[in-house]
Automatic annotation (TrEMBL):
Topology in the lipid bilayer: Multi-pass membrane protein
Family: Belongs to the amino acid/polyamine transporter 2 family.
Compositional bias segments (type: Polar residues): 12-21
Cellular component, GO, one term: membrane
GO MF annotation list: L-amino acid transmembrane transporter activity
Organism for this UniProt entry: Monosporascus ibericus
Protein name: Amino acid transporter transmembrane domain-containing protein
Amino acid sequence: MDSDAENKEFSSKSSTAAPLAQNASFDDAEVVGQVRDISGLESAKAEQGHAHFNRLGWKRLTVVLIVEAIALGSLSMPAAFATLGMVAGTIVCVGIGLVAIYTSYVIGQVKLAHPEVAHYADVGRLLMGKFGYELVSVMFVLQLTFLVGSHTLTGTIAFLNITNNGACSLVFGVVSAIILLLLAIPPSFAEVAILGYVDFVSIMAAILITMVATGVKSSEAAADWSAWPQPDVTFTSAFIAITNIVFAYSFAICQFSFMDEMHTPKDYVKSIWALGLIEIVVYTLTGALIYAFVGPDVKSPALLSAGSLLSKVAFGIGLPVIFISGSINTTVAARYIHGRMFRNSVTRYINTPKGWTTWLVLITIITIIAWVIAEAIPFFSDLLSISSSLFISGFTFYFPAIMWFMLVKKGAWYERHNWLKSAANAFIFLIGIMVLVGGTYASVDDIVSFPSSA
């Protein structure tokens, strides 16, 4: 049970409670109730907490988005290009990137029109009421937990590669989880932005080392890359490749959460374009060049293709991005759950002993679950694929399309000024459904058939 000091609800008529009212759930049944005045200490804590969590400008938002976005996705690109071929790989990579920029723009428009939306889950209520809120909440938390699990798995692979000790995968998995847990302790995204510069330099350096190493090997013996898909490509392998590319553009899931900390939310458009274009360039060059250098035998994650010595160097340099990017997903999930648990309490601001205690317990639970997922699905491409299919298909494609029709569109969908956007959003919705159905089937099929094909 909450203590009396922390369990009092904030009055919507009080100026000190206004920030909380803006960020609280907008379901009348959960906001309206017994209203009591808050103490002077609580008032000070609320104002202090609100100021602490509203410090992001568009430049810092771009850095945080880069931290969350440009990480594991880039490591799966060369293998996806190897399956789809250079032409199809480039088209899919650039095309999905442009779609992701547009859907993120739609998400931002929803946030500006409905400031009370603090996390993606809140949109579920706008679209489908209480059921939608609970459904999207589950998807939101599960996807973020899967992301943390994928970073745990990548950390394990990195440590195994660096040490050449294949007998310690369980130990390295635990070590990776502990590092992710420690980096998730700071609850504010503005604080994570400081690590973002280290994160970005880390992933770019690791990619460049891999490119140089594979390029040198290619100059000694030309790689047999192809402009077209592999002759023996199957539906399963093709969809695994496509969903791996989809995974790379999954930043939309955290956008509401990040924008909720912005002091000028309308500036988000600058961040979206900056991130989207950087991602398209980095992903396309990474996928195309490393595939061209290595050929159809390129590995996933791509750093494994750099050769014995240089792959160790690349993984060592890439450790910051593996853990910093992974930890921010823990923070987003925990911020949502913690805010929901303590909606009308200063505990939600994590600046009291109870707030810090509950925060540490929560991020520990999320990290443990993520570690279990990493142990249960120990195949890098398949883990990314099943995550993309079940969750990113919605957060990046069909949910934003529905948002446009229900929350953003001006006038009827068939009016002349809406024709192009109506067609575009209907197409994006279909993309999401195809990724959901086809990708889920392909992921399960690949995991089930792995022992027989190994």
